[in-house]
Specification:
Helix content is about 40%, strand content about 25%. By secondary structure, it is an alpha+beta fold. The longest helix has 18 residues.
C-alpha cells in the first residue's frame, strides 16, 4: 500500500498513510499522561470534559484567611479523618490529597509522614505548625461535593485560570474534539506496516482528553489533512500533520501551557513520533495569569489552528536543499561549530548513515541526525539541549 492508494484527490486521508518515524524527535509527554490516568480521569469528548470541570467551578468559591486562624479538627470516631475550620466559612472543609500536601507545606511539616499518622496526631502537628510559623494570608479554594472540600491552599497573589476556561478556548477551534472540525483525538500507528491510521474509535483506552481533581491535559491533532514536505528515501511523500497539547491546574499543581508542533505519527501508547517545529508557551499562575491567558496563550492556539502549513513546508524544503557539508572533514567541522563533541559528532553522522543509507550533506540531514541523538539521550537536560539545536538549525534554514 502506498500513499496514493490511501489518500484521496484532495489530499485527505481515506485509510492511512505511510510515515517514517525514524526522523524528527520523539516526545513522550502525552504518553506519560496516557499511562497515568485512571478511567475516571478520561473523557470521550470536549463537551463531556467541559461539563465536568465547569460544573465543578460553579460549586467552588475563594476565601482569604490568615494561616494562623485556621483550626484543625480531628474526629475520634474516624482515625483517618480531619477537617479545617476557617473564619468566615460556615462549614468545616475536608482537604483533598493535594490540598493536604499544600497545608502541610504551609505548616512546615512533611506531608508523606503526616499521612501515615492517625488524624488526631496529624491534626496536632498541623495545628502546631500553622500557629508557630509566620502568620500569612492564604487563599483557599473550596468546592461543595456532598461536603465542603478544600481543593487548594495558595498564596494571596496566586492567579487562577479555571480549567473550564482552557477547555472552552480549545472547544472554539476543535468543536467536540472527535471529528466535527479538523481537530480530533489522534489515530494510531500500525507498527507492522508503518501506516498511520487517523480514524480510530474514541474510547477510554484511546482518548487524549484528561482531567483530575488537580489538573487537565488535552491533546488533539489535524491528522486527516497531512501536508507533504519532501520525500522519503523510497520516493514516497514525507507527510506531517499538526498537533497541540495544553495543560492547566486551578489548584497550583502545574503551570498553564500550550505546545504546538508538526508530527508524523502517534502510536497506541500515545508517544509522538517524528516531531518537528515544536513550540511551547508556559505561563505561571501569577496575579497576571488571566490577562496573559486572554492576550497570549488563547490567541496563539487560535493562530496555530487557523494557520497555513506553507511556512513550515518552506522551512523543511529549504533545509533539504541547503548543502552544508560534502566531505567528512566538512561534516565534522560543521558539527564542531555547532558545539558538538567528537563523540557526539560521530554518533550524529552514524545515525544519518544508518537511517538514510548515506552520510549527511544537507542542513536537514544534520537536523535529523541531531534529533536521533536526542531520542537516544536518557538525561532530560541533555536531550532538551539537543532538541534546541535542531530548532536553531531549522530557523537558520528559514
Amino acid at each position: 500500500m502506498n500513499n496514493s492508494d490511501i489518500m484521496n484527490a484532495a489530499g485527505h486521508a481515506k485509510v492511512g498513510y505511510k510515515v517514517d518515524i525514524g526522523r524528527g524527535e520523539r516526545i513522550g509527554r502525552v504518553s506519560s499522561e496516557w499511562f497515568s490516568r485512571p478511567d475516571d480521569e478520561r473523557f470521550l469528548s470536549l463537551p463531556e470534559l467541559f461539563d465536568k470541570v465547569h460544573d465543578r467551578s460553579l460549586r467552588s468559591w475563594h476565601h482569604l484567611v490568615d494561616s494562623a486562624a485556621i483550626r484543625v479538627e480531628a474526629h475520634r470516631s474516624d482515625a483517618q479523618s480531619l477537617s479545617l475550620v476557617c473564619p468566615g466559612v460556615a462549614e468545616p472543609l475536608v482537604p483533598t490529597h493535594w490540598s493536604f500536601g499544600q497545608l502541610a507545606s504551609l505548616a512546615g511539616a512533611p506531608a508523606a509522614y503526616l499521612r501515615q499518622l492517625p488524624a488526631s496526631i496529624a491534626g496536632l502537628n498541623l495545628q502546631h505548625g500553622l500557629a508557630s510559623n509566620r502568620t500569612a494570608p492564604v487563599r483557599i479554594l473550596a468546592t461543595r461535593n456532598g461536603h465542603c472540600e478544600l481543593r487548594a491552599v495558595t498564596g494571596p497573589g496566586y492567579g487562577r485560570v479555571f480549567d473550564h476556561e482552557l477547555v472552552d478556548a480549545v472547544r472554539r477551534i476543535a468543536g467536540n474534539g472527535t471529528g466535527d472540525t479538523r481537530w480530533k483525538v489522534p489515530g494510531t500507528l500500525d507498527w507492522s506496516t508503518s501506516i498511520y491510521r487517523p480514524r480510530v474509535e474514541v474510547t477510554k483506552a484511546t482518548t487524549t482528553l484528561y482531567a483530575s481533581d488537580r489538573d487537565i491535559f488535552l491533546f488533539l491533532v489535524d491528522d486527516l489533512n497531512p501536508v507533504e514536505a519532501g520525500h522519503l528515501p523510497d520516493g514516497s511523500p514525507d507527510l506531517f500533520f499538526r498537533g497541540f497539547y495544553c495543560w492547566n491546574s486551578e489548584v497550583g499543581a502545574r503551570s498553564l501551557g500550550i505546545a504546538c508542533f508538526y508530527l508524523r505519527a502517534v502510536c497506541q501508547n500515545r508517544n509522538l513520533w517524528g516531531v518537528e517545529d515544536f513550540q511551547e508557551i508556559t505561563i505561571r499562575h501569577s496575579k497576571h495569569v488571566a490577562a496573559r491567558f486572554a492576550h497570549e496563550a488563547a490567541p496563539a492556539l487560535a493562530r496555530f489552528a487557523d494557520s497555513s502549513a506553507a511556512s513550515f513546508v518552506r522551512t523543511i524544503k529549504a533545509a533539504r536543499q541547503r548543502t552544508v557539508a560534502a566531505t567528512d572533514e566538512e561534516r565534522a567541522g560543521f558539527l564542531r561549530n555547532c558545539g558538538f563533541s567528537a563523540t557526539e559528532t560521530a554518533r550524529i553522522i552514524a545515525s544519518v548513515l544508518a537511517e538514510e543509507d548515506r552520510k549527511p550533506a544537507s542542513l536537514f540531514d544534520f537536523v535529523q541526525g541531531i534529533a536521533a541523538a536526542a531520542r537516544d539521550q536518557t538525561h532530560q537536560d541533555a536531550r532538551l539541549a539537543l532538541e534546541a539545536k535542531t530548532k536553531y538549525l531549522l530557523d537558520r534554514a528559514a
